[in-house]
C-alpha cells in the first residue's frame, strides 16, 4: 500500500465558504436569486477596467506567464509605499505566500504561533511542513488581541507569529503598539496579515524599515474584487523577500491574473468606491443586526461582522442552514478553533442584499 505522510493522515480538511453554484444545486434555487455573504468578497464585483484588460489579452493563455512580474511589483510598491525590492507576489492568493513562508522559515519540529480564533489556513498550511502550532488568545468579548498570551507562547523554537489585523473572523484591529511589543520581544518573523486593511484605514507599513522581522501579508481578493484570480502579495525587507523567492513557484501567477491586477491597481476610482460601499454596508448591517433581539454583533474594521447566535435557541449550523434554504449564504464559524457552535460571520453585500438578509433573518428568528 502507498504510504501517506503521518501529518497528512492526521490533518483535518480546510472548510472554505460555500459557493453559489453548489447551493443552487443542493437547494434547487436559481443562481441569480442567491445572496452570498459568506466569503468576504467585494459586492461590486471586479473593476470594469480589469475585465476589459483581460478581454484584450485572452490569447496569452497559450504562453507561460512572466516570472519577474516587474511592472506589477512596481505598481504594488507604489500602492503600498515601499520599494519593488520589498514585494513578493503569489499566484494562489495570500495562501501561496503562507506556504512560501513555511518553506522558507520552518524546519520540522519548529513552532508557529496563532492567536485563536483567527484565520485557520495558517495552521492548515504550515502543519504540512512538520511545524507545530502554538496558540495565543484573541479575547473575543473585548475583540482584541491578548498580547501577553502571545508573548508567553514564544519559545526558542518559535519561527513565525501570525497577527491578523483586522482579525478574521472577529473584525478587531491590533494596536500598533502591541505589534511593536511583539516584534521587539522575538527574533521570529512576525507576519501581520492585512488582507482587510483597506476597510480599516490602518496599516503597519511604517514598521518595515524599523523591524527586520516584520512581514506584511495582503491580497487582491477583498477590496480589489479579484478573489477568483488568486493574487496575493507580501511586503518585507529585501533580505527576507530574496530568501522567499528562492522557493516560490516561478510561474504561479497566470498571465490573466497579472493583467487584472495591474488594471485594478490603476483604477483608483474603483478602489475608492469599493472601500466606501463595503464600509457603508458594514455599518448598515451592524446597526440593523444590533437591533435584533437575541443576537450579539461585534464592531468590525473589516468587511464582515461576527454574530453570536446562542440566545436564539439555535446553533450556528441551524441558522446557517435556514438561511441557505432561503438563498442566503453566511459563514458558519464552527470550524474556527477558539469559537464554539454559536457564531456566524456575515460579509458585506450591496444595501439591497443586506436588506434582504435582515428580512429573512428576522423571519427565521420570529418563526423559532
What report would you give on this structure?
The protein has helices at residues 6-10, 20-27, 48-55, 70-80, 93-105, 121-126, 147-153, 176-184, 238-245, 255-265, 268-289, 316-325, 351-367; strands at 35-36, 87-90, 111-116, 132-139, 144-146, 158-164, 189-193, 214-219, 232-235, 296-297, 304-308, 328-329, 331-332, 343-347. With 368 residues, the protein is α/β, with parallel strands linked by helices. The chain has two domains: 16-45 and 269-367, Aspartate Aminotransferase, domain 1; 48-266, Type I PLP-dependent aspartate aminotransferase-like (Major domain) (Aspartate Aminotransferase, domain 2), CATH 3.40.640.10. It has an eight-stranded mixed β-sheet with strand order 2-9-8-7-6-3-4-5, with helices on both faces. Helix 3 packs antiparallel against helix 10 (255-265). The chain is globular. It starts with 5 loop residues before the first helix and ends with a helix. The model has no long low-confidence stretch (mean pLDDT 96). The modification N6-(pyridoxal phosphate)lysine is found at residue 222. Residues 33-360 form the Aminotransferase class I/classII large domain. Its EC number is 2.6.1.9. It comes from Methanobacterium alkalithermotolerans.
- What's the SSE pattern? HHEHHEHEHEEHEHEEEHHHEEHEEEH
Please compute the radius of gyration using only Cα atoms: 20 Å
Number of strands: 14
The percentage of residues in β strands lies in 15-25%
Count of alpha and pi helical runs: 13
Structural class: alpha/beta
Low-pLDDT runs of 5+ residues are: none
CATH superfamily annotation of the largest domain? Type I PLP-dependent aspartate aminotransferase-like (Major domain)
Nearest-integer average pLDDT = 96
Widest beta sheet: strand line-up: 2-9-8-7-6-3-4-5
Instruction: Report the CATH C-level class of the largest domain.
Output: Alpha Beta
Question: Fraction of residues in helices?
Answer: 25-40%
Q: The CATH topology of the largest domain is what?
A: Aspartate Aminotransferase, domain 2
Task: Characterize the largest beta sheet: strand count, sense, and whether it forms a barrel.
Answer: 8 strands, mixed
The CATH architecture category of the largest domain equals 3-Layer(aba) Sandwich
C-alpha termini separation: 51 Å
Please tell me the total number of domains: 2
The rough form would be described as globular
